[in-house]
Amino acid sequence: MKVFVTGASGWVGSAVVPELFAAGHEVTGFARSDASAAAVEAMGARVLRGDLDDLEALQEGALHSDGVVHLAFRHDFADFDAAVESDARAIGALGRALEGSGKPLVVTSGTPALAGQVATERDRSSGGLASGREANSDAALAFAARGVRPVVVRLPRSVHGQGDHGFVSRLIAIAGERGVAGFVGDGSARWPAVHVRDAARLYRLALEQAPAGSVLHAVGDEGVFTGDIASTIGAKLGLRVEPAAPETFGFLGALMGLDQPASSEQTRALLPWSPVEVGLLADLEAGHYFG
């Protein structure tokens, strides 16, 4: 397949592109900057220049592809609503370009946050940051009625691995700045997690095999206690571990105290996918986050 990938040079995209190549697909990566274009070319992919506001370029990439993996998202937590709106416009443009083709459109969202309940692929978020992207997922799934094969891949709070600069890396940086590794409440809040290479395999399978309307969970660890994350960070940095106020963690504060485990049982039953890489705590123990 000729696959158009937005966010190809990003954290997850840089694992998805090699996964697609290994399966024999051709890849065109969407790149908004010279640095992103160079990274896409270094992976061996073709480059299409543009950004998420360039709807004509997005449609061009989709029209000349056999399927789309949409990973690009502006992770601006200072104006998250604007990021969600930009994503909605991009999904609409990609979907319209694929109308009537039967081609796959794989989009990205987050696992639902349901306090005290293990979220499944059938669940919806009760609020928070994930709810805005969920509405965008609904818009993507609606293209099934217009001759597209839409699939939603929900990512957990941590997509980890060597080179990760996401939430866990931020927690490590905050611990280093404060001289204390912290958690919110009693540390019993759970975060789902997945290794980036496991996530990449699921995106490929979603593109190749998932039925129209599928909602998939890229979840390896169903729920890692935030207290255990803090304890592992503290041990690796030689710092004490103690509870802290949510505001200590900036935009992560609200997530740190929210119990939000998620399952991938239905995904594993639908597709030949199961995680094979190490879990989050083992990845932290490996040391590369602290190099």
Automatic annotation (TrEMBL):
It holds the Pfam family Epimerase. Residues 3-210 form the NAD-dependent epimerase/dehydratase domain. One of its GO terms (cellular component) is cytoplasm. CDD domains: SDR_a7. GO terms for molecular function: aldehyde dehydrogenase (NAD+) activity. It comes from the Bacteria. PANTHER family: NAD(P)-BINDING DOMAIN-CONTAINING PROTEIN-RELATED (PTHR48079:SF6), PROTEIN YEEZ (PTHR48079). This is SDR family oxidoreductase. It comes from Sinomonas puerhi.
